[in-house]
Amino acid sequence: SSSMSLSEAEVQSARGAWEKIYVDAEDNGTAVLVRMFTEHPDTKSYFTHFKGMDSAEEMKQSDQVRGHGKKVFSAINDMVQHLDNSEAFLGIVTPLGKKHATQLKIDPKNFRIICDIILQLMEEKFGGDSKASFEKVTNEICSHLNNIYKEEGW
């Protein structure tokens, strides 16, 4: 009883697109966060140790930014590996969503921001087809996260 709305072909092409960007998980994860912090400075407020950083260069060099960039990409990678198994997928997304909703109190709109930046980066690096094939995955991730937030009373 899969709650995933992706066909097998869509899963395969999404994985192909993701693999290209995941090869450099730390650099690309860092690039995504730096862009988010630069274009949406309010998102920095959730990360006490990033608050004082104003230049993109400084953020790029930060071990904490790099570490979190890699963490974000690893979490998405786990989800991408389980797109064809909704139970396993939800087993990853659910605790992640709960933690961000209850402990970290992160506004769920930030998930959409980060997903959109990943799609932008994919398009810049690998073209529109990569972006298009991964867009459904980001929609899937964001809608599940939003559902978890709703369950947590957001």
From TrEMBL:
Residues of the Globin domain = 5-150
Q: Which Gene3D superfamilies does the record cross-reference, listed alphabetically?
A: Globins
In this record, what's one Pfam family? Globin
Name the EC number(s).
Answer: 1.15.1.1
Q: Which InterPro entries match?
A: Globin (IPR000971), Globin-like_sf (IPR009050), Globin/Proto (IPR012292), Globin_lamprey/hagfish (IPR013314)
Single GO MF annotation: iron ion binding
Q: Which reaction does it catalyse?
A: 2 superoxide + 2 H(+) = H2O2 + O2; H2O2 + AH2 = A + 2 H2O; Fe(II)-heme b-[protein] + nitric oxide + O2 = Fe(III)-heme b-[protein] + nitrate; Fe(III)-heme b-[protein] + nitric oxide + H2O = Fe(II)-heme b-[protein] + nitrite + 2 H(+)
Task: Give yes or no: UniProt keyword Heme.
Answer: yes
Q: Which keywords belong to this entry?
A: Heme, Iron, Metal-binding, Oxygen transport, Transport
Described purpose of this protein according to its UniProt entry: Involved in oxygen transport from the lung to the various peripheral tissues.
Q: Which family does it belong to?
A: Belongs to the globin family.
Q: What is this protein called?
A: superoxide dismutase
